[in-house]
Amino acid sequence: MSLPRLGAARARDLTGRFAGLPVLVVGDVMLDRFVVGRVTRISPEAPVPVVRFQAEHVRLGGAANVAHNIGALGGRPALVGVVGVDAAADQLRAQLAESGIDDSGLVEDRRRRTTEKVRVVTERNQQVARIDYEEDGDVSADIEAAMIAAMARLGGNAGAALVSDYLKGAVTRKIVSTLRDARRPLIVDPKIPHLACYAGATLVTPNHHEAEAATHRRIRTDDDAREAAREFRRRAACDAALVTRGEHGMWLSSDAAEEAIPAVAREVSDVTGAGDTVVAALALALAAGATLPEAAILANHAAGIVVGKFGAATVTREELLATFA
To answer: Parallel, antiparallel, or unpaired for β 116-122 and 29-42?
Structure first.
């Protein structure tokens, strides 16, 4: 099977169409907090490292990081999600404003707290611990209705719709079914307990662990990936599946193409949020008129860049094009 190709000229053409391209992003927004410190000893109280505080960084996470990536690539994200009425929500809104992203699609739920992940990491980017602040039950009917109203208000002219599912409650069967529209592609970054919700999606992007869990198949080779991707498509009832395999690249399965996409060699610093970058690039590329293999190659290059950065990071069009030089 021949490998898919995307030349520099075509990459420049497609990414040139990203500017101002509207994409609707719906899902679990969150705040990522990184507490960075130096480890020099083990605690005398318990066999755990003592982390001496050096710095703290706050980043957009989940669906908010997807929107941030779309904006960084030149697109115009419309973000819909749920937050609490708390300090984390205030910080999340401030981060969105700093990134030029409209927060009017965030629905407030006084019964929930804003999802926040606090990671304690060393100065060498080694994660010591993670603390999750969250309420992960499905949103109530009134919040779901408010989200659907926000989707209609903000997403009418979107060239693509994207679901970022982190199992924090914002993604429901009704939310996904409302997003299905033959006029535009629907991309889903999935979680396996919601597999039945994604029927009819244009493209679903499980990582290899999720694909193994959904299909009960081990993925060790390209042949394994091909069979798992086919089975995943059948179980999810989606048009196409893109299995992301880390250093082994990706496998794309659709009626039109079955392709192994080799990884773009990079030094890995942090894989946090890499999936967000992948789906952001996919959505923009498909909205810009790329074929599925072309969109997957662009997303693969974007992922190769972002894993070399710390935390939930973004990629610019210029950085992406530089990898095709």
So the answer is: parallel
